[in-house]
UniProtKB/TrEMBL annotation:
<protein>
    <submittedName>
        <fullName>TlpA family protein disulfide reductase</fullName>
    </submittedName>
</protein>
<dbReference type="InterPro" id="IPR012336">
    <property type="entry name" value="Thioredoxin-like_fold"/>
</dbReference>
<dbReference type="InterPro" id="IPR013766">
    <property type="entry name" value="Thioredoxin_domain"/>
</dbReference>
<dbReference type="InterPro" id="IPR036249">
    <property type="entry name" value="Thioredoxin-like_sf"/>
</dbReference>
<dbReference type="Pfam" id="PF13905">
    <property type="entry name" value="Thioredoxin_8"/>
</dbReference>
<feature type="domain" description="Thioredoxin">
    <location>
        <begin position="322"/>
        <end position="456"/>
    </location>
</feature>
Length: 456
């Protein structure tokens, strides 16, 4: 770490107020700023200087858990009164590179170390989920005991307060609870054995001890991950229609999650946050107009978040605009020459619009090859590729490395506008239009085995 950062780490500050300092250095930056957030709301946008360093003095910063983000990556940072923290990070290996120094470093480095330990468990756990319940419990209890000793040693050394200890304990316990929630689902998937009926009666006793209405946990990742699996687990126990289509089953499962959330959370503020998380995840995956409407109807009955800024409301409204027979909303696109064109001017016949990014090269190549095969079978269709990246030179260079014929290549001018109007939430999405520019199917996957049915 450079001299400036080391000097800042050792500097003494006045403890008579609530001022705090936050700064650091970003190696291989992806943009020119670091966002500082509280409860997912941006408090400050801190610019990088020409040496990729950033620094901010907060005249008054309430003690608590915050988030810093160098998009698209993020991590947590905890501030006590008058903490002065510097952080070093590398966007190429973000989580593994984050190191704190300064007043408050012990707490924050503990959170990072615990996070990395829990992440390293993921690959090891696949085989463990195959175990019978006795062997499974023995394994995760042993692993938890090691983690708990690590926590106790760090707490004894740092002497942190009860406020931070709540997060320290949550980072210890919730990954352990999450493994228990995942176990019956993954065990059945991998072995074919339904294990739920063989679980000990006390297997889920920890659920009774969790304070689901504590606002401190609402946006804390270990809790959010646990909650995701716990709700999925409990909802799975409530649905029984084995003969439903995958889309109908997803609808039933997610409405069950909404209903469980309604009974589990007393705080309407926390309930709204959880409902939003469920809705956002569902709308990212299931793109079926009729089912989405049923889901959103139930969501709107339970949620009191009626603000115009509610992301779920905006997605729901956009989905309804993409119903069959509606005109495809207009967005601005760029040609290979950098000329701005209106999407409406491009649809002069039956069309298939698909998307790609240079960050997923295997998909980029595979989707173009798929389209060229389809073009041979359905020559009356136009195939329009839209790159969703923000760099014109990189886009044209990527295309120069390949020769894709019979495809109109364009790049999005404003991705946020495209995402909002066309509900582009995953790269495998495609849109099929009629000759007059109206929508034939607004939500379809080119790699679906039945995709060609949309072109007949």
């Amino acid at each position: 770490m450079n001299l400036l950062l080391l000097t800042s780490c050792n500097k003494k500050f006045d403890r008579d107020d609530y001022s705090a300092y936050f700064g650091g250095e970003v190696t291989n930056p992806l943009n020119r700023y670091v966002l500082f957030l509280k409860d997912n709301k941006v408090i400050d946008t801190i610019p990088l200087d020409r040496n990729n360093r950033f620094f901010k003095k907060f005249d008054s910063l309430a003690p608590g858990l915050y988030t810093f983000k160098h998009e698209p990556e993020y991590q947590y940072v905890y501030f006590d009164k008058n903490d002065s923290l510097m952080v070093r990070m590398n966007s190429s290996d973000f989580d593994e590179s984050v190191i704190f120094c300064g007043r408050g470093e012990e707490k924050n480095n503990y959170l990072m170390e615990m996070y990395l330990k829990n992440e390293s468990d993921k690959d090891k756990m696949f085989a463990v989920f195959d175990y019978d319940v006795v062997k499974f419990n023995k394994y995760i209890d042993s692993s938890f005991a090691v983690r708990k000793k690590f926590y106790e040693a760090k707490k004894e050394k740092a002497k942190w307060n009860d406020e931070f200890d709540y997060y320290a304990l949550s980072a210890l316990y919730f990954p352990y609870y999450t493994k228990k929630e995942i176990y019956p689902v993954v065990h059945e998937f991998r072995t074919g054995e339904k294990i739920t009926g063989k679980l000990p009666k006390d297997f889920y006793d920890y659920r009774k001890e969790i304070d689901y209405n504590n606002k401190q946990l609402t946006n804390f990742s270990p809790f959010v991950k646990y909650l995701t699996y716990m709700l999925n687990n409990r909802a799975s126990e409530k649905i029984s229609n084995e003969n439903s289509s995958p889309s109908d089953k997803a609808l039933e499962l997610n409405i069950a999650k909404l209903n469980i959330t309604d009974t589990l959370f007393e705080s309407q503020e926390i309930k709204n946050t959880v409902l939003n998380n469920i809705a956002f995840a569902y709308l990212l995956e299931d793109q079926h107009i009729i089912n989405n409407k049923k889901f959103l109807d139930r969501y709107n009955e339970l949620s009191t978040d009626k603000s115009n800024q509610n992301e779920i409301t905006k997605i729901g409204n956009s989905i309804q605009m993409l119903k069959e027979g509606n005109p495809l909303p207009s967005v601005e696109l760029l040609t290979l020459n950098g000329e701005t064109v209106d999407s409406k001017s491009l649809i002069k016949g039956k069309s298939v619009i698909f998307f790609w990014t240079e960050n997923a090269e295997s998909h980029f190549v595979a989707v173009h090859k798929k389209v060229m095969d389809l073009k041979k079978k359905y020559p009356n269709y136009n195939f329009i590729a839209i790159n969703v990246d923000d760099n014109q030179a990189k886009w044209t260079n990527a295309l120069d490395n390949y020769k894709f014929e019979n495809v109109t290549e364009l790049r999005v001018k404003n991705f946020e506008d495209l995402k909002e109007k066309w509900v582009i939430t995953k790269i495998h999405r495609a849109i099929v239009t009629n000759a007059d520019g109206t929508i034939s199917n607004g939500f379809v996957n080119l790699f679906d085995v039945k995709f060609a049915d949309n072109l007949k």
